[in-house]
Amino acid sequence: MEFSYSDRAQVLVEALPYIQKYYQKTVVVKYGGSAMISEELRKAVISDIILLKLVGINVVVVHGGGPEINEMLKRTGKESKFVNGLRYTDEETMEIVQMVLCGKVNKDLVATLNRSGGSAVGLCGIDGGMLQAKRRVENGVDYGLVGDIVAVEPKAIREAIASGFIPVISTVAQGVDAETSYNVNADTAAAKIAVALGAEKLILLTDIRGLLRDRNDESTLISQVRLAEVPGLVKDGVISGGMIPKVDCCVEAVRNGVHRTHILDGRIPHSILIEVLSHAGIGTMIS
User: Fold this and answer.
1) Residues 62-74, buried b or exposed e (16+ Cβ, 10 A)?
2) CB 194 within 8 A of CB 258
3) 0.85 exceeded by the pTM?
4) How would DSSP label each residue in 189-210?
5) pLDDT digit string (tens) for 55-74?
6) Across the strands, what pairs with 205?
7) Which of 93, 146, 97, 144 is nearest to 124 (CA)?
């Protein structure tokens, strides 16, 4: 299918009101999953972020790095261990997590943005006491050095934005109950950062279409969910398994001032642009 010049102009015209609406507003993108591993999807996400920044939207990128951590643990002969879906993090694992997330993954992402014409700066949750956490204690279960975020200090992020940079944040937190760093959930960190910044949008890139009424049928995508509907969807089993913590992050963000949150399929090239700058909503919006 070939686009005429008129078709291309129409795309830009359709984007104009959204550019005007979000100009100088902040959008927090949690970047992970297939969009971080596939080279094609990675390029699409990078170009989306740079384009949004160039039209005046402040983009903050929060990333995880599970596959890279698994690979480094494998190289060192250390087995990955998970407890209730969370990576058990002993002291040796925490060293690797911090090295991989704050070092290689963060700096590779920053370099890719810069090479592609963006202007990015890498930060980690320890910088400026940005992410502050306490050790997770839950029904007597030991997760090791896994933390729950208790406070966010967004000064370093705001200064990066004010200087024209795209902040790229790795999710390692500073302990406030011990002299240690903590491994924290990237979705949760993104939600709390969005709240602290008073963001307009929080976007969680995932490896599924969004919230499905029937998890085996992508045509049953629920495009919009209001907060009051969430308990019923949990009760009916529509929100279950790994989707529960993602929806919880979105709910917390909306309750604390973020206008809209989106669970998007990062396997779709340019899903961020489609969601932010077009009439077509391709994921699930919680508002």
Assistant:
1) bbbbbebbeebbe
2) yes
3) yes
4) HHHHHHHHHT-SEEEEEESSSS
5) 999 999 999 988 899 899 99
6) 264
7) 97
